Amino acid sequence: MLKFAFKNLLIKRVNVILIIISITLSAGVALLSFNTARQVSDGITNTAGYYSAVVGPAGSSTQLVMNTMYFAEEPLGTIPYSVVTALAQDSRVKSVIPFAMADSYNGYSCVGTTAAFLESKSLAEGTMFVDGQAGQVVVGSAVAKTCQLKVGDVIYTSHSAGVAHTTGLTVVGILEQTHTSYDTIVFTQLKTIWELHEHEGEEEHEEEEEHDHEHMENAVCAILIKTTNPATAMTLVNEYDGKTVSDADGDIFTLQAAEPMSVVRNVLEDTNSTKYIVYVLCAIILAMNILVIVIITLLNMNYSAKEIRLMRLIGVSMKKIGLLYMVENAFIGLISVVLALITSKLGAGLMTNYVQNMGVVLDRFRVYPGEWLILLGILVITVLPTMICTYVIGKRDAAA
Fold it and tell me: Helix 2-11 and helix 13-48: axis angle, to 10°?
């Protein structure tokens, strides 16, 4: 039966190839859309729930949260480190993590913070940088792989304009792969950022960008906060949002504070409409695909009518004939869903650079249960029209 089915498929190979291409493309797009939407949503939501509040310079709350928690936007500016000290002494605050983003290494952003920022991450090699000790960095897995870094290597970060610092930083650790934006960041102690730009401040500052870096000393771009009680987070946000502070030079800074989960919910609400549009388009493509499969199946069955009558004359039952065509279509469906899954994973690889702007690194090999259901549904669709057609033909012959 199988041997005959394969020979029959080879005879109709043009039709078979067209059906496989049609199913693969439509199903691949549906799987890619579903998988990407889920990974982006899960990645953003999981990270946002880790902190109670974030404080930074006045401006866009979305930009503040996306930059601080997902490294996806440019910093809004800086605020005095004295704000960190004040928050650390607040009885409502469990932990305070300063955050400064400055410079880059081979296009990868450099973040100055404390070891507590990486407490939930595991090291693949080496050790964590020591708080208060400058000159050490821990790099994400993608940075280490792409730049071929190992523990003990010395790197030189640079301004976005390409002017490299003369002080080298030693790689003391490499993070395990997380499939998040942490994989693409160079992490160091906050003191490292300050010292790099303090030394830079001793040199000439002819460019505006370099002048801005003078103000990195004793300053941070944002502050991540965990409160002792979730109920106090909003109180803290209301207290610090719009508050003004001054630094040692008398410069005035206006703060903003935001609750990360609230900001992320708003972002996801804005993207949900786009996600649903993609789902609707995929549903339309799949519906058209079903129509194509049904039409091609009917045409094939009509084309094979003479073949079916010949098999009936030599004593082959309609049940066996139906089984033959179901085997053929099941084989087509199986090849199609496998190729669709492979196509969606290749597409996820191409989408990685795009979604990194939202602070998420796609895991190409992650498959959600919903994707298996989509593939199962497509497999059933490729077989069902044949089952119906052979049943109708069998009833018609029996009546005759």
Answer: 100
SS3 142: helix
Cβ within 8 Å of residue 179, ≥6 positions away: 361, 362, 363, 366
Which pLDDT band, with edges at 50, 70 and 90, does 118 fall under? very high
- Determine the Cα–Cα distance for residues 366 and 216; give it in Å rounded to an integer: 40
- For 290-317, give one letter per residue: b (16+ CB within 10 A) or e: beebbebbeebbeebeeebeebeeeeee
- pLDDT above 90 for 293: no
φ/ψ bin of 77: left (φ > 0), alpha (ψ from -120 to 50), beta (otherwise): left
pLDDT digits (tens, 9 = 90+) for 38-61: 777 776 666 666 788 999 999 999
Could you say which DSSP state residue 254 is in? Answer: E
Residue 215 has pLDDT above 60, yes or no: no
From CA 132, how far away is CA 135, in angstroms rounded? Answer: 10
Please give the Cα distance from 255 to 329 (Å, whole number): 64
> Is pLDDT above 50 for 206?
no
**Is residue 366's pLDDT more than 60?**
yes
Q: How far is the CA of 100 from the CAs of 56, 118, 158, 229, 249, in angstroms? A: 10, 14, 15, 26, 20
The residues with which 223 forms a beta bridge, in sequence order, are: 55, 98
Q: What is the SS3 assignment for 350? A: helix
Percent of the chain predicted with pLDDT > 70: 78
Residue showing tokens 């069902």: 384
Report d(CA 198, CA 217) in Å as an integer.
6
93 backbone dihedrals φ, ψ, rounded to 5°? -100, 130
Which string of DSSP letters, residue by residue, matches 256-311? EEE-HHHHHHHHHHHHHHHHHHHHHHHHHHHHHHHHHHHHHHHHHHHHTHHHHHHH
Dist. CA 240–CA 233, nearest whole Å: 11
- Going by C-alpha positions, the residue among 352, 350, 387, 382 that lies closest to residue 26 is 382
